Every structure is written in C-alpha cells, then in structure tokens.
Amino acid sequence: MFSNAVKICTINNFEIRVDPSWLIIAGLVTWSLSQGYFPDALPGRTGSVYLVMAVVAMLGLFASLLLHELAHSVVARRLGVPIKTITLFLFGGVAELEAEPKSARTEFWIAIAGPVMSAGLGVGFWTLSLIVAFGGAAAASVAVLSYLALVNIVLALFNLVPAFPLDGGRILRAYLWHRTGDALAATKAASRSGAFFGYLLMALGVLALFQGNVLAGIWYVLIGAFVLVAARSSYAMQRAQAAFEGTSVAALMCRTPVTVSPQVTLSELLHQVFLPRNISFAPVMEDGVLLGHIDRSVLSRIDQENWVTTRVGDVFVGLNDQVMIGPDVGIDALFETIRKTNRRKILVVQDHHLLGVITLSDLTRHLSLTPLSPSSGPRTS
Ligand SMILES: [Zn+2]
C-alpha cells in the first residue's frame, strides 16, 4: 500500500516505516503549533521557544501514533494474526495485518487496543502535566504535556467513531459479526457507516472552507475522502475473498490456452497469434514440452525491423517460479503471487506439464458472475 515508505527501525520484530507523506503532517503540526496553538496557550515567549515546544510536541505525537499502532499489533500477534509492518503516513498510522481476523472476538480485541492505548496515554500525559506543574517546572513543558494529553484523547475518540475502517468501525463490524455470524454482511454495514462518515467529514470540510477556515477545510475533505475510499475498498476486498473462498486455480484457469512454437518469428507471433486472438501472452511449447512463455513486453523490447528475422525461441522467457503456479493452489495464494510478482498472467503447471493459464481477468470475470446473496458469505451455514 505504501511503496515509498522508508523503514526506520524494528521494534519487537515489527518493522516501523514512515511514508514521505507523514513529513507533510509533521511540518503542518510543527508550523501550526509554533504559530498558533502555543503562542495562544502561553503568551509572551520568543519565536524560538515556541518552535522548540512545537518540535517536541510533534515528536510526542509521532511516538503516540506509533504506540497506538503497536498496541493493535501486539494484541494481533498474541491472538495469532500476523503483522509485520507499521507505517506512519499522512493520516496517522496503520498496522498492516497479513491476514483478516478469524473471529469476531479477535477483531474486537485488536480494534479496541489502539483507542485504549491512546486514552491511557492521554490520561498519562495529563497526570504528568499536573505533577510537573505542581513541582514548579517551566510552564513550557506543562503546555507541551497538556497538548499531548489533549491530542491522545482526541485520537482515542476519533478512532472510536463507528466508521469502518476506523477502529470504531471494526468494533461495530465485530459486534454485528458476533450477533449474526455473517462476516460479509457485517463488513457491508460497517463500510456503509464508514462511507457516511466520510461524506460527513467532507461536508464539514466544505463548510469550514466557506467560513474561511481553509486549512481545516482541506484537511476534513482529505480525511473524509480517505475514509470513504478505504471503506469502499475494504468491503470490495472482503467480497472478493468471500467469492473465492474454497476455489482453486484449476477451477478458474483457461484449460486450452493458445501456445506457440519456438520456431515462429515475432512478426508471425504478433500478426497470426496475438492480434487475431486478442491475447498478449502465450506459453512456448515444443513437442509437447513446456519451455517458457512470451508476452507483448518482450516484443516491445526488440526493434520492430528485427521482428521478421527473430524467432520466439531466441527471446522467450524461460521457466521460472514467478510465472508458475500449481492447479490445487487457492485463489488467495494466487492473488499473493500476482501482488508479489506484479504479473497478471500465470502458467498453471504440474510435474512440468502445462495444464492451463490463469489471468487476472479470469478472476474479475468470476467475481462479476458471483451472486452476492447472503449465502455467499464465508461464515454462514
Ligand atoms: Zn487504531
């Protein structure tokens, strides 16, 4: 999801990454705290004092977001849901679950852990600010601690809004799932509330824009759009998983793919195979033996004037694990292969024999044909 994120460290075997978009937030927070919030809260200091306070507060916010995600991650790992990376990005943090929780109860505990951590941090920072104030420490440190207390309480409350995929939406989903036993229907309802909240935030943002509050306005619109898109795509993914549950590659592959001989020239390949049959990928076979594959990207790397003399046998891609999969593999594993290798067309091979070809469009076709009655949910019986 975050291909530009940079790994900064590893905590407790969780890889901590920062997406460059987080720097936007770090900059905005530092700027607005040093220019507005701290000068209002604690008048009469110099600009450099406010700047130092703002930077410390921003680092505190960074640590708070990280602890929120670590709380989700530690609980997830305890409950058997693997998590490898935590990424901080424009709208906060995200702990990337490698699999969906297997039960409503697991989902609930993973979801609630983050807001509980934020609320705890809020109370902790608030207590600390009281102690520090009572001890007669500098007013600047009290102001920074109070800010961190406030921001953690806001984080806990915002994340508890029942809008999927926010934590509160996940709790709502876990509750509905627990009550009805239908994970897909629960996701659908929780995503709807997520979409509603997304629209609401965007509307509030537009209202703020009209009132001249440009920064807050843009911010609400962006977060609203993010929640809306995330809610929709989470549901689509859940739906796809339900549609492919228990389906193997063999069930959806094309069993009679067009194959080509290594003797064929590239020009023949294009004009007699690819164009007339509207395909862009073909296994290369000789005397019934699978040698590899060739696709349009190989053609595009070779000068067009050489297509008449170059044969498929000279340029095809040999057999490798990246483009091969077994017939009994589940569709979820196929998706994983497609995601990892970025290839949309895969050879289905068993004991060196070509059984068929499976492409991303075979999957989407199946998806559009799968009825979405409640009975297609994975957990109804
Ligand atoms: Zn959370």
Report on this model:
This protein is of the alpha+beta class and 381 residues long. It has three domains: 1-160, no CATH class; 163-244; 249-369, CBS-domain (Roll), CATH 3.10.580.10. 59% of the residues lie in helices and 14% in strands. The chain has helices at 21-41, 47-78, 104-134, 139-159, 167-180, 183-210, 214-244, 249-252, 266-277, 296-300, 312-315, 331-341, 360-369, and strands spanning 6-11, 14-18, 83-89, 92-97, 281-286, 289-295, 317-318, 324-325, 345-350, 353-359. The strands form three sheets. Strands 1-2-3-4 form a four-stranded mixed β-sheet. It has a three-stranded antiparallel β-sheet with strand order 5-6-7. It has a three-stranded mixed β-sheet with strand order 8-9-10. The protein is elongated, with a radius of gyration of 27 Å. The model is unreliable at 372-381 (pLDDT under 50). Zinc ion binds at residues 68, 72, 114, 159, 167. Zinc ion is lined by residues 68, 72, 114, 159, 167.
